[in-house]
Amino acid sequence: MYLNGIALTHTYPCLAEPGKIIVDGKPSRSLAEAIPYLATLPGVVAYNPDAPTLTFRRQPGFMTLYAHRVTITQVCNADEGLELLAALAEAINATWEHRQELTAVTHHRRRPRPLDIYALLPQTNCKQCGEATCMAFAFGLIQQNRTLAECPALIQDPAFASRRDTLAGMF
Ligand code: SF4
Question: What is the pTM of this model?
Fold first, then answer.
């Protein structure tokens, strides 16, 4: 078994969907060795093997794995968060047990889609970045004409810290 579990450490409001929460979890050991195998699973939105960070799209929201932290967005409540973290720990253990049948991914994996990026931006269309909309900024990020630092809300507002980390992992 790779992990004993993932402890729920923190919850905070999910700005992408009012009423829902973001859940932070701490794995019982570093995920660094397992992440290259988890990157073979379906639903990967972005993978940065150097960090390492691995982001999955889930319905709804995102799940991002770091070496020492897991973040899940758009969760209904803490109980659902606990269930999701337990299911994730099981999935990690199952993947680890079958790692000999998998080829660890060691390269960056596919460019994120504009909608995936947009879902993580503040979505206020405040224009402070010089773009008319957050979607235009998302395209700019993908085309590497823009950087995350050009969105003041994303960089300065602590409420966006989790999204900023996820986006930083994508780029
Ligand atoms: S500064 Fe950020 S929140 Fe404002 S429009 Fe640009 S991307 Fe959207």
Answer: 0.72
